[in-house]
Design goal:
By secondary structure, the protein is mainly alpha-helical. The protein contains 40 helices and no strands.
Length: 740
């Protein structure tokens, strides 16, 4: 735990900020002398630490003297001696000899025999088989617990056997403290080797036990202390770290990892900078991963360079963290340069590196590159595991290549790889998103047949898919099946139901589901409210939408930019553009930063109303807020200026969007061609017409009509027929799409 009072903190310099600081350790920590501050001791948070802290001032407590149990009868004493004699006379020291009297044995007999066997040179090999002669359930006899304690002490010179005995004892259906008491009680008579307690700490890493041992004057090994340190909550780990008399690099690495995992990077950096021992490659790897996990790429790269400059033998771990961060940011080309740097420094590429790069390519939709890396991985003899295959399947699903994703899953099965619930769920979700529920349930049934239990995410994906198909009854049946299997619905599951209801206009049922959700103890989130508000706005129920927004605010749920965009879109679609403008002004007043979608909705409606003055004002305001226009922005502006016959402005925005790498939409092409023809700019218009057809876009019918008439009047019947065929074919495609 942390320094508990400011007075205690003032006694040593602190290297962390605020009240959560870890006190600085200067020099090795040693047990305090009898002059240690009683004030500090009085501040202990837990009673068991008051007398047993690693810095305890009390004189070491002597270990208790062992008192062997007395035989309950002469027959018990005789049977114990008979057992020990049989073992001592055994010609096979590594195994138990025939013991015809086993049915008569009780734990007491073994307890009486163990002192007689203590000096046997091969006692270690028969200890565990002897102990397993006696049942430990439902509750182990106290004599059996003591037998295990003595046996662990006797086996201390064979750590493997001793640990096996300790692990068995600690699995007893009784509190650990019973065994620990017996272990301490029998220590003086059967071991007196502190290594016994090192082994106990490795099997039972406990701060309470560690402090208890300090009461007896024992100083557990750094490895044992580290085993305890790695299991503690962060605050307790910090306190224990301060009290450890002997720290090694692993001690620092354990605490650094805990600090990084908790997001306390400043604290981790300060500890790293003040290490009393040279950091190793694990130290650097831990720090690099910590910074990468929080998106701090520049610092992570500097640490990696520092590690290389110090001549530490690099491994793939630190590099992989940086590669993963770059891939998550979409900077796959930079990630590849890091891979090249790995190779240059002689670091072998492992399966994790290949999988991480594949994931980056999949996220960008570059499946050709992802497959190339997958094949290269196999060519190098690196076995692709379930994570690698799942990464590829996920990429294929996102790209809509579901048949190929299914084939890759079949390949996994054929290779005998473990296809787990995550892999199946990725494919199921892909089919659900496409709306192919038949295939989704086929994969679901297959996973059940293979004894892979669907989880909450699997059912939520299926439920969402059914809702989007309008099969709300099927979704409800699925949810009942979930509940019958003991799976508790979460917010995402309810949201998928609400979204399905809203999509098919069943607003009242959607509201009832939200009520059920709250009754189940789940709190609707921003997505829940945004979905409902969007449906209300689209149906023109602005008063209810406003009421729901107010309810959301009253419950302390902060609207997202998507929530505001839903409201903006609702205002604009209903023709209440001034209401939308007031919403934008309110957002800016409340320091809610609009995004490009917010501005596009408002500009689109002003363009529809031919109010280009207000459109320009919004566009300038967008620039003043440093919101970059996107492709949709330019298409909206071009169509608006064409409609208002502002050819100069329309061409200006067209040139600017081309320079930025954006493309005209079919409707923007048609608007611009239409305006150029009206302005007698026939060559420019025809150039755009040919360009859009080359890009696979189809002009609007009136544009085709213009060129059909023009070519007919010019007696160019071949072009006339070609344009007519294109128009008829496109009309047929649109008609077919509208009826499917």
């Amino acid at each position: 735990m942390l320094l508990r009072r400011a007075s205690a903190a003032a006694q040593r310099s602190s290297w962390l900020s605020h009240t959560r600081a870890i006190p600085r350790h200067v020099g090795p920590v040693r047990p305090c002398s009898s002059t240690s501050s009683p004030h500090r001791r009085s501040r202990r948070r837990t009673p068991q630490f008051e007398d047993g802290a690693l810095t305890s001032t009390a004189a070491p407590r002597p270990f208790p003297d062992y008192s062997p149990p007395r035989p309950e009868s002469p027959a018990d004493d005789a049977l114990a001696r008979r057992l020990s004699a049989a073992l001592l006379a055994s010609p096979s020291p590594g195994s138990l000899p025939p013991l015809p009297f086993i049915p008569l044995l009780r734990p007491l007999h073994l307890l009486l025999a163990l002192p007689l066997l203590a000096s046997h040179p091969n006692i270690t090999s028969v200890l565990l088989p002897l102990l397993l002669l006696f049942p430990s359930r439902p509750h182990p006899h106290p004599h059996l617990i003591q037998c295990f304690a003595i046996a662990a002490h006797l086996a201390v010179r064979d750590p493997g056997t001793a640990c096996a005995i300790l692990v068995r004892a600690l699995r007893f259906p009784s509190p650990h403290r019973h065994f620990v008491e017996q272990f301490i009680f029998t220590y003086k008579a059967f071991s007196s080797d502190p290594a016994s307690f090192d082994l106990l700490l490795l099997c039972l890493p406990s701060a309470t036990l560690l402090h208890r041992l300090r009461q007896y004057g024992l100083s557990p090994s750094p490895e044992s202390c580290n085993a305890v340190l790695s299991r503690l909550p962060l605050d307790e780990a910090i306190e224990l770290f301060q009290e450890l008399p002997d720290k090694n690099v692993r001690s620092y690495n354990i605490l650094l990892k805990a600090l990084c995992s908790a997001g306390r990077l400043k604290d981790a950096r300060q500890l790293f900078d003040e290490m009393l021992l040279p950091p190793d490659v694990v130290t650097y790897g831990t720090m690099v991963h910590g910074y990468c996990a929080h998106g701090e790429l520049e610092v992570a790269v500097k640490l990696l360079d520092e590690m290389v400059a110090k001549g530490l033998e690099s491994n793939a771990t630190a590099y992989t963290s940086i590669i993963a961060l770059l891939c998550n940011k979409g900077q796959v080309s930079d990630a590849l340069r890091v891979v090249e740097d790995m190779v240059m420094h002689g670091v072998a590429l492992d399966g994790v590196v290949f999988t991480t790069v594949m994931s980056g390519f999949c996220s960008k939709g570059d499946l050709v590159a992802a497959r190339r890396w997958f094949e290269e991985m196999q060519n190098r003899g690196l076995a692709a595991d379930g994570v690698t295959y799942t990464t590829l399947i996920n990429g294929l699903c996102r790209a809509g290549e579901l048949k190929e994703a299914d084939r890759v899953l079949r390949e996994m099965v054929d290779k005998g790889l473990d296809v787990d619930v995550v892999t199946y769920t990725v494919l199921i979700d892909g089919y659900c998103k496409r709306g192919d529920m038949v295939e989704a349930f086929r994969v679901h049934n297959e996973m059940v047949q293979r004894r892979v239990a669907p989880n909450l995410v699997t059912y939520t994906a299926l439920s969402d898919g059914l809702c989007k198909q309008g099969d709300v009854h099927g979704a409800n049946e699925l949810l009942h099946e979930m509940c019958n299997k003991g799976l508790e619905l979460n917010v995402y599951t309810y949201n998928s139901l609400i979204n399905g209801m809203c999509k098919f206009g069943n607003m009242e049922q959607a509201m009832r589901i939200m009520t059920d959700m709250e009754a189940a103890g789940l709190k609707p989130d921003v997505y829940t409210y945004t979905t409902l508000i969007d449906t209300l706005c689209k149906s023109g129920e602005f008063d209810r939408a406003h009421s729901l927004l107010q309810d959301m605010l009253d419950k302390g749920i902060k609207p997202s930019i998507a929530t505001y965009n839903v409201l903006m879109n609702g205002f604009c679609m209903s023709g209440r553009v001034e209401g939308g403008k007031k919403l934008l002004e309110w957002m800016l007043e409340k320091n809610v930063r609009p995004n490009v979608v917010t501005y596009n909705s408002l500009m689109k409606q002003y363009c529809i109303d031919k109010n280009m003055k207000s459109t320009t004002e919004i566009y300038k305001g967008m620039h003043s807020q440093e919101v970059a226009p996107n492709e949709n922005t330019y298409n909206i502006l071009i169509k608006g200026h064409c409609k208002a016959r502002n050819m100069k402005e329309a061409l200006y925005f067209h040139n600017e969007m081309i320079e930025k790498g954006f493309k005209l939409s079919a409707s923007a092409y048609s608007a611009l061609i239409r305006l150029l023809n009206k302005k007698k700019k026939f060559d420019e218009a025809r150039g755009l017409f040919d360009e859009m057809r080359k890009d696979g876009l189809t002009a609007e019918p009136d544009v085709y009509g213009f060129y059909i008439d023009h070519n007919f009047n010019e007696d160019n019947l071949e072009s006339t027929d070609a344009f007519c065929d294109e128009l008829v074919e496109e009309s047929h495609v649109k008609s077919k799409a509208g009826t499917s």
